[in-house]
Amino acid sequence: MKPPASFWLGDRELILASGSATRRSMLENAGLAIEAIRPDIDERAVEADFLAAGGEVSGVAAALAVAKALAVSRQASGRWVLGADQTLTCEGTAFHKPEDENAALLQIAALSGKRHELSSAFALARDGAVIRGGVRRVGMDMRPLDAAFIESYVAQAGPAATASVGGYQIEGLGAQLFSAIDGDYFTILGLPLLDLLAVLRELELLA
After folding, report:
1. Which of 39, 143, 151, 191 is most buried (CB neighbours < 10 A)?
2. Which residues belong to the active site?
3. Which domains are delineated in the chain?
4. Which stretches of 59-181 are DSSP H helices?
5. What would the pLDDT profile of 80-104 be if each residue is shown by its tens digit?
6. What is the pLDDT of residues 165-174, one digit of tens each?
7. Strands, E assignment, 112-177
8. Which one, of 37, 30, 20, 168, lies nearest residue 85 by Cα?
9. Contact 100, 106 (CB under 8 A)
């Protein structure tokens, strides 16, 4: 029986190959029926292999989205599977989720006063093959921050400082870090949602 959702037309839920509560919330708020399955992949190994093969840093998010979607799709016959990922680069250096509070302090200090780029990608797969995908990029201007402010921010942000790449969540206290943003809000949250919805409509999976 088709699960209740405002606009989703699939026979079964769309599988989100991710443990991200933010992505799941975005999709459900947009009227999609979602089942979340965390993919069993080594993201840093996928990234290393992609770069070793000549891939550009700006393409890592798309490579990870594909790897996540395929890992789950191969175990879910007949189901639509969505993989997604987000990467951050600043002056040619890639950043990842801070491992702890100290790493968050160092990361935000490194981004302070600079412009960095977020790349958010999605890959839609079925029966072990990628059907469609997409990526969007956003420019983020972090204002100059002194050490005392960074320490105060990380202390007040708590777990949010280590939950996202860059050490911030723009929908929360992370907004305090920025002077300007050039791009799509959903992309900042980790998924180019409007592009995905357009693809799902083309595939007649959305009303």
Report:
1. 191
2. 85
3. 14-202 (3.90.950.10)
4. 60-73, 101-111, 147-157, 160-163
5. 999 999 999 999 899 999 999 999 9
6. 999 999 999 9
7. 115-126, 129-142
8. 20
9. no
